[in-house]
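Troubleshooting log. The previous structure file for this entry was overwritten by mistake, so regenerating from the original sequence record. Sequence copied from the archived sheet and checked twice against the printout by T.R.
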Amino acid sequence: DISSNFDYEWEDISSDGILINFESNDSGTEALNIGFDFPFYGEIYSEFIINANGWIGFGEDNTEWYNGNIPSTDAPRSAVFGFWDDLNPVNDNCNDSCTGNVYYHNNSQRLVVWYNNVAHWPSGGFEDSFYDFQIIIYPNGEIDINISDIIGNFSATVGIQDENGENGMQVAS
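Regenerated output below.
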């Protein structure tokens, strides 16, 4: 279900968030502890990954940066897409335009992943485009996607899908 309440509460993790280090602008992290058991499409997950391209997942990493409609077997699976697009956060192989960091913080009440002023890959009219958003998941299965700022152009996919890429909910694309 999508709530009709579009107000959001930004979770400030600036003082206690853990900085993520990505190998490249399309890679994800190793498995990280959620901090609780998270129910998602009939499965229970205790670990997750963070991908540089604006999504978190509960399985294998997927370096696909060309976002599209979901559900789809071509898209990352089992995933929450906060702002899936060809993003370019600070990483080990930065080019001249990589900008913005990704942080996460977890406890027994919620997991927050914050993409802080992350740049889009600079091509096709996306030069000087930056995004500030959060993905928050809760032990009861609820998911919040908070978008604070969008500067410049965007073409992101926002939504969720299951591990088979057959069931999902697209909010935007």
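The mean pLDDT is 95. Archived copy saved in two places this time.
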